[in-house]
Amino acid sequence: MTQKIRIHLADDHQVLIDGLSNLLHTVHDFEVVGSSLDGTTIYEDVIKNNAAILLLDISMPNMDGIEVLKEFSRKSFPCKVIILSSYDDLKIVKEVMKLGAKGYLTKKSAGENIIEAIKVVNADQEYFDDHVREKIFASFTRNNPKLNKNSFEENQILSPRELEIITLISLEYSGKEISEELFISLNTVETHRKNIMKKLKMKNVIGLVKYALKNNLIKP
């Protein structure tokens, strides 16, 4: 029997907690084990409930989500954290990911993405909803004259994240630079690179660059 993913909810609005709880209870593999309305109790609550995933709002009373992450960092993380916030400011996204959060969802996209986000983060990968991910990618490629993002929508072979990775590899970003710019781990970058090469049946980076040029992902 597969062990259920234990989830703790932290938000200052009980109505939101109730709505999320009802949604997550529809998934057989999920179990909502507790909730917090106040930031100061979250660390103890998560340990007591033995939660694997914490859905954490940034705007919490007495101790906000960023301070909660700092506490987790000081005491060691008892679970994986997905930020669920009304804000989509990249400065905030960057700060919480550096503090150890594994995912970031805006509340307006939570209904359609939260189930996938929990499964991805539970599998030890980072997750961003499409809106946040696109803002991250656009923030540092906007002024790159070699980028041809219009060709992304035409590509049916690679996922949006894989397209971002192959493009950055082709633009000579190192694995570390891709990791820092996309707010994902170096291990995640390497996993994507291997998957891309397997999909495209390429043996080296030169093949990836040729593919990017041929498919107009970057300009010569």
UniProtKB/TrEMBL annotation:
InterPro entries, A to Z: CheY-like_superfamily, NreC/VraR/RcsB-like_REC, Sig_transdc_resp-reg_C-effctor, Sig_transdc_resp-reg_receiver, Tscrpt_reg_LuxR_C, WalR-like
Residues covered by the HTH luxR-type domain: 151-216
SMART domains named in the record: HTH_LUXR (SM00421), REC (SM00448)
Domain Response regulatory residues, every copy: 6-122
Keyword terms of this UniProt record: DNA-binding, Phosphoprotein, Transcription, Transcription regulation
CDD domains linked: LuxR_C_like, REC_NarL-like
Keyword DNA-binding included in the entry's annotation: yes
UniProt key word Cell division: no
Pfam family, one: Response_reg
Modification sites for 4-aspartylphosphate: D57
Protein name as it appears in the record: Response regulator transcription factor
